[in-house]
TrEMBL record, chains A, B:
UniProt keyword annotation of Membrane present: no
SUPFAM superfamilies per record: C-terminal domain of transcriptional repressors, Class II aaRS and biotin synthetases, Winged helix' DNA-binding domain
Organism: Cohnella kolymensis
Name of protein: Bifunctional ligase/repressor BirA
Residue ranges of every copy of the BPL/LPL catalytic domain listed in the record: 71-259
Alphabetical keyword list: ATP-binding, Biotin, DNA-binding, Ligase, Nucleotide-binding, Repressor, Transcription, Transcription regulation
PANTHER family: BIOTIN PROTEIN LIGASE (PTHR12835), BIOTIN--PROTEIN LIGASE (PTHR12835:SF5)
């Protein structure tokens, strides 16, 4: 049985219940097979009510993104103007990296309804179910030297958190360097991948994963307590097209500000929104574990930690806390 | 006519002259075609004497590198232990980057007798004729954060210049960041390509091009005044295997020192060997042209420039001088 035939059957019923028995007969499959297909459709964004004795009823379809709608909402000069939207990709990062190597322009955007191998920080996987989140990658070709890339990481976090706050009534805190939290639970992760020749950045691919309309049951057990979606946090579904347009606009605005005025304004915005500063923290870094109190950012974008002996140390890479923050939750 | 048939003819003559007429008859081609093939063989490292009325005589064959010989000379733990030697590649950088993405180990080395698309800095091409130079790329997977890569660029220059000085009696000056000069002419260029996820370096591919046994006539006109080979500078041919082994040993030693003790010792070695400090310079940077006097390196590996008004500015990316230094000369 293909899920299309089950779908046609439910759609033909126009919101009326169809019993499992009837479906099973018409499609000539077992009732277990029907149940499995129902679950599969649900992972794709369909909402199907199952009521004992009554059967199944289609109450919601996935709201799919459309290039036309996205472009009509865009208020940017370059960001998102070259746009590639796919139903399924293994990873928008890999897709855009390939385009970048082929010479794609700054601002090129790759979006997918679903990622089968979404990646988070530190090589972890990133849950990217169909139709329920924003899984996208943006290409930058910044005329800045390699050592300044931490600044871009921080800029991305500021852009994302500001854009979300414009549309959704939630209070977002940035966890160093670029995780976005609501009530201590993660709603978004950012992954920057960069390629350089000597100190010249060839390109930066900014991966953004935002849990928009996921439900509690979309999360596997190990993420349930650490992750949250915008819908769960605010109580209402969020229009993904609108949010994508807002993110691109805010990102482009801050990026231009950064190229004109340098890191100072970005630093101030980041420091104003972070939850990492001025509380004791344990940092996992490539050089080992550091304990201390993060006090602020330095000129390069490094995190300045005050150590127990009163001295300070700056770190550019690592994670705050239990080392789990790279995954969705 | 294939150059192999001309080569067999010359080899069969065992050092005795073969007239152009005879070759032309035996191979059934014009004398111009013979002359063109002779030139082609010379670009591959063959030495062919041409004397009017006597004809052509083979007096030297390219000394080819061998994996066996290289490994027997190696005094390293990891550098060069995984070794890939090819006759011709488009670029050792591209070859090694591909291996790096497939998971190659730190220390993996790609060497080629000849590159058809050798790359220098800023996307310039790099002259890499067969058998006459060292064209190689070394894979590093350093446990350091992205902003520190300028330090690796400088480390590479120190390693190369020290290794060459051990074997060849020439006085080498490092031009910021990593060109090696003899009497103001370039003998070597280094190109680092790095890939990072956030601030975590995934890998660095260190490309090294050393003009070892090139002759004046190997250089095209535009490079003739700016480039020089070790053989031209010292008056004697240099054993490439020996030099490769010395470079890998010195590079590994300094790399271990750097991972243990940080940048301070590398910085001192670089400053001791550079020709860039304390003389007025014009720097081309991504942010524009800067004029001033370079005074030293900062903790991150940036070049600190004293400006006319007495203030100072640090640059991480750019070129000193006329902007031509990225090519061989």
């Amino acid at each position: 049985m293909s899920k299309d035939s089950l779908l046609s059957l439910l759609e033909a019923a126009s919101g009326v219940y169809v019993s499992g028995e009837e479906i099973s007969k018409k499609l000539n499959v077992s009732r277990t097979a029907v149940w499995k297909q129902v679950q599969k459709l649900e992972t794709q964004g369909y909402v199907i009510e199952a009521v004992p004795r009554l059967g199944y009823r289609l109450t919601g379809k996935p709201s799919k993104l459309s290039v036309h709608e996205l472009l009509s909402r865009l208020n940017t000069t370059t960001f998102g103007r070259n746009l590639k939207l796919s139903d399924v990709v293994s990873s928008t990062q890999d897709e855009l990296r390939r385009l970048a190597e082929e010479g794609a322009l700054e601002g090129t955007l790759v979006i997918a309804e679903q990622q089968t191998k979404g990646r988070g920080r530190m090589g972890r996987s990133w849950l990217s179910p169909a139709g329920k989140g924003i899984w996208m990658s943006l290409l930058l070709r910044p005329p800045v030297a390699l050592p300044y890339t931490p600044q871009l990481t921080l800029l991305a976090a500021v852009a994302l958190s500001r854009a979300i706050s414009q549309l959704v009534p939630v209070s977002i805190g940035i966890k160093w360097p670029n995780d976005l939290l609501v009530d201590g639970r993660k709603i978004s992760g950012i992954l920057l991948e960069s390629a350089a020749e000597d100190e010249r950045l060839r390109y930066v691919v900014v991966g953004m994963g935002i849990s928009v309309n996921l439900e509690q049951e979309d999360y596997p057990e190990e993420l349930a307590a650490k992750a949250i979606s915008l819908k769960m946090a605010s109580g209402a579904a969020v229009n993904r097209s609108e949010l994508i347009a807002a993110i691109l606009e805010e990102f482009e605005r801050l990026y231009e500000l950064y190229l004109e005025q340098g890191f100072a304004p970005i630093r101030a915005l980041w420091e104003a929104r972070t939850v990492t500063l001025n509380r004791p923290a344990v940092l996992q870094t490539p050089q080992g574990v550091i304990q201390g109190v993060p006090r602020g950012l330095d000129d390069m974008g490094g995190l300045v930690i005050e150590l127990e002996d009163g001295s300070s140390r700056t770190v550019y890479s690592g994670e705050v806390g239990n080392g789990q923050a790279g995954a969705n939750g």
